[in-house]
Amino acid sequence: MIRLQIVSDVTLNAIELESSLGADDTDTVAKITLETAETAPVTEVEQVSKVTIENPPLKILFNDDCWLKITDADGKVVVAGVYTAKRPLEIQGKLPMKLNTARASVIKSVMLGDKEISLESNRLSKRRFEIK
Length: 132
Known about the structure:
Blueprint: E1 2-9, E2 14-21, E3 27-35, E4 58-62, E5 66-71, E6 77-83, E7 89-91, E8 97-101, E9 107-112, E10 115-116, E11 128-131
Antiparallel strand pairs: 1-2, 2-3, 4-7, 4-9, 5-6, 5-8, 8-11, 9-10
């Protein structure tokens, strides 16, 4: 859930726009302060055509060599290649992402931000998984 909140502070002649994710208000993504002239009241808010909220990073650790390909929600290939225990993967991409690999058993862990993702519960087929 994305929640936008406009807070007006007359004493400071400012308008604050906060964008939050989640059920509680602890995950503030962005805070924008617009200063206004002391004599000019704010009567109109311009329409924002596009707001981009960045997804948390995806980090994958491996136990052994592992080829994988990851595509984002738009079908764009974000990464394709061989990774090892000494070469972990950390990327950003538009969710949901699709992960394709022949050796899922060598994937040690998958983290989306600070949340661990279970590949088994996100399996689409023998080789394909969805990260959301």
